[in-house]
């Protein structure tokens, strides 16, 4: 909601100020479709040249984070900690029984408690690969932490690909606006024999290109890149929570202590309350 409000406020202030100063929208509206075609088309085309089809699709999906925000919410963290509690508890009590859950998580009664987790391949791989490595005696806390940090860095690099793409578009838009403006000037020079009032409208239309390139870059696309980066950073905290639980687990801390260490590392706006998490764990024990 705040993103929509910010966009609406920006448009109101920019164009409202222009109209209050005595400007006329006629010239802008007349030139807008053609300028958008040149500037927007060149931006999308250049982005397509420098990226793969998968990257284009990812950028399109990630742009929606401007309005939806982070993928993971407070309730997701609560559910994650419950799932990890059951897994590490099972790993200590029945390592053989754990194998069925990590080999086929989509049929695991533990993972099925958190369907959203099953849709995130990165989180699922981190959990299953770490537990599988532990079953092969790769359980040194320092080595596990280093391995998880590398996996999280790889995931972060993937999540931030859209950020770099959007920022590159924002950086190029002012120059593309100048290109469109130059083409407008060329068009104007072809009508140099026209009266001043005609030339004025042609020059005004040409300058719309410069305005549009700068406006799109700094008022829309660059803020979009910033918001997508904030959402990506927020999502990375989800994977860091998994890491904290496993590192504590391999340090042989009690399962509830592993959860508490991870819970305190979660950003405050997503952090589940101690009482709520403790009640959820008690409920799991009573149903075990």
From TrEMBL:
Recorded family membership: Belongs to the MotA family.
Primary site of residence: membrane
Annotated PANTHER family: CHEMOTAXIS PROTEIN MOTA, MOTILITY PROTEIN A
Taxonomic superkingdom: Bacteria
NCBIfam families, per the entry: MotA1 (TIGR03818)
Organism: Marivita lacus
Entry keyword set: Cell inner membrane, Cell membrane, Cell projection, Chemotaxis, Cilium, Flagellar rotation, Flagellum, Hydrogen ion transport, Ion transport, Membrane, Transmembrane, Transmembrane helix, Transport
Protein name: Flagellar motor protein MotA
Domain MotA/TolQ/ExbB proton channel: 136-236
UniProt keyword Heme present: no
